[in-house]
Amino acid sequence: MAKSRKRRPTQPKPGPWDMGPSAPAARRDTVIEDRGEADPVTGKTVNPNGVKGVRRQPVLETYRGQGRITAAQCEAGLRLYALWSGDVDRDPTAPKTDRMGSGSDPLAGAVDARAEYRKAWAAVPRPAQSAVEWVALNDERLGLQADDAGIHWRETRARMVALRMGLDALSAHFRTEG
Q1: How many whole angstroms separate alpha carbon 159 and alpha carbon 69?
Q2: Pick from 135, 102, 123: which is nearest to 169 by CA?
Q3: pLDDT per residue over 81-130, tens digit each?
């Protein structure tokens, strides 16, 4: 009878780097994309090593990709989020100019952003405010919102219509503000 060999414990394969955890909960609302650099001559993205990475996608971008909202509505919601969070640098549509003229006081810029947020929020119609707050500011899907009694309701056409109405009002506000 042949002597059996002792097996070595197998090492798990390492996951691809820059991808984060692979659990289903960690993969929700994420997008795998190329991590390349822009070629200064051609302007195209160059990724010679095929490096990929994971980016969290906001719910507004998910809805835009599904065709539920327009690109202008998505940009308005993302801009409202940037004003609400106080980080105007996150807003790709914001002008890259100095807010105060001197550029020496970052707190003054945050106060200005908060004032701009209040003006934009006032432009959202009252019936649409809960839907816009839930999706644009809390970054949650409409179907997960709970009503006042704490009972979860399913996503309905009426809520999506309210979200579109609020984002349209925001888009119009940002167009007039410049």
Answers
A1: 13
A2: 123
A3: 988 887 655 544 444 455 445 555 667 777 777 888 999 999 999 989 99
Domain ranges in the chain?
Answer: 54-177
Q: Which residues, in sequence order, are CB contacts of 31 under 8 Å at separation 6+? A: 54, 55, 56, 57
Tokens of 176: 């007039």
Instruction: Quote the crossing angle between the two packed helices 157-177 and 106-123, to the nearest 10°.
Output: 130
At residue 149 the predicted structure's pLDDT band, cuts being 50, 70 and 90, is very low
Q: Helix 59-66 vs helix 71-85: angle between axes, to the nearest 10 degrees?
A: 180
Distance spanning both ends of the chain, measured CA to CA? 86
pTM of the model: 0.69
Contact in structure between 81 and 137 (CB atoms under 8 Å)? yes
Quick one: tokens of 87? 């980080």
